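Appendix B, example 12.
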Amino acid sequence: MTTMKIIKISLIFLFSVFQLFAQTSDNSVLLNIGNSEISKQEFERIYMKNRYIGNTGSDISIDEYLDLFIKFKLKVIQAEELGYDTLASFVSELNGYRDQLAKPYLTDQSTISELVQEAYERSKIDVHASHILIKTGIDLSAEKQQEFYKKAYKIRERIVAGESFSTVARGTSDDPSAKSNGGDLGYFTVFQMIYPFETAAYNTPAGEISMPVLTRFGYHIIKVHDQRESRGSIKVAHIMVAVPRGSSKATEEQAEAKIKIIQEKSLSGEDFRKLAKEFSDDYNSAKNGGELPWFGTGKMIPEFDLAAFALKSNGDISEPIKTSYGWHLIKRIDKKDLGNFEANKDELERKIFAGKRTEIAKYKFIKNLTEEYSFKVDSSLLIPFYLSINDSSLTDGSWIKNRNFEDSGILINFTGNKLTTGDFKSYIVAQKGLKLRGSSKDIVDKLLSDYSARELIAFEKSRLEEKYPDFKYLIKEYHDGMLLFEISDKKVWSKAVEDSTGLKEFYQKNKKDYMAEEKIRFLEFTLHSPEQEKSVLKAIKKGRKKNRKLAYYQKYFPTDTSGNSVQVESKEFYLTDFKQYKFSDLQKNLSKKYTDHDGIKIILITKLLDAQPKQLNEIKGLVTSDYQNFLEAVWEEALKENYKVIVNQDVLDDIISTIQ
């Protein structure tokens, strides 16, 4: 993310309200700025969000904040007058923010809360289950679904009657892996299975068989073997010696011998990270010392998972473990428990919104809207659709040629919205190539349900500002924050960076504000043996008399091929930096000896330089920042001159008395 983008987001958040609080509906005018009026309510909302300075707990006074608020509004008003909010890029970006902010308002929040709580309760438990899958395809008619259900039910009856689940799974399941694992899925936890399957597994007691459960893959029969308390998550490093599938016995034995050699090296104290980098065949993790991302139940193959969680303490290393990938040594790095609800809430909610179970909340939301808006459908007008649309005619579009449709009939009516059969027909035409299965009635009813939901949500979305004052202000604050960024970038930030002439002029006028401290210029002699000290001091004594420079000493100590000659360098340090040499006496021609990690060194001070302004290229970032502040101050003064600002003192006094 670029610096400018970060600044933009920060400015938007600065004037955004996320923690809602009790508000009056008092729209008394607090400020008149030019032709714009700013209400008491708008100011109060933003002040209550931003009154606290950092994490200190101290709050900014209303008078102080009012000054900041006026400057903010002046800039926004000017941006509006310049048409920044009409630019296509601005409108598109604001609409993108609006779509994101609208999401919580377009779903049933009580259902979301229930789903989050349910997910947390399930995350406390790991389930070990097997399943049998009977594939059904998608969008089946009710009759076809019933046929598949009966097939699944008969298979379940065989197991209930005593047949082995794994044997029946191998013979009947449409899950290809059942041939080798008898349908055993190992342990899993919340979000690792499709939601209806997950629900059935968590609701089936250990040792019992579920009734057939329908998902988009088909019908499942689930046997729950065990339920255990969550083990949390773990972080490990591993070393793998790969054994490709179908390898000979000799290859497998060589891999086992190699992992045991590596184990001996680790037991003798060799660094596990280095061993992983040198020997591991898992090249992705080897470059990071064998480290794997944090994982919990169901993320790793069972043998690896079992061995990793069996390690008792950080630093413990497992015995060699055999998996389908080869041999592994596993080292525990860290482990953490699940944590409480509050610690997991945000992540659980994110996963719910990213997955299919939000459909439950959307369905409830749409159902509520149909009641709120007295949603009605004239079913008699659907008859032409029922008679003309089937799965093939929908796919190839031929249905529209088979019958004359009356386009003006009011099919849907809600809160003044009237949608005709022609509107519905246009919607279906736009679904070109859509594949639905079932009877004609099933297909048309599904299309009507989707169309109705779309229109209801679009209508609700258009009313959010009217219906929810907090959403209205939130969008307003994003709008103003974006405008503040755009105009500040134009007037201050980018201008300061691009205006090299103005920057130089600013620097020249304010040089005294960028004074460097005194400098020390010196020669540094690096010795490679104590015996060289005498010759160096002799050279310094000779050179002092004639104020010799670097070239003289370099000629005196020419470089030889052995690399053991005295090396001479000229250096210049600020006084503060020079203090690392711990010299208490600083004067020209003073020589001192000291020792550091490079060996013996002798310093000869050649010049003491007075404080002077730093060069622009040394401090360009600092000067640019100060120039931006200067430009902003000039701009703010100009705004105050161009726009008349009137504060309604009575309203301000009322705010002060109410809040303080």
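The two ends are 40 Å apart (CA to CA). The chain has five domains: 1-81+468-515+613-660, 125-229, 233-336, 374-462, 516-609.
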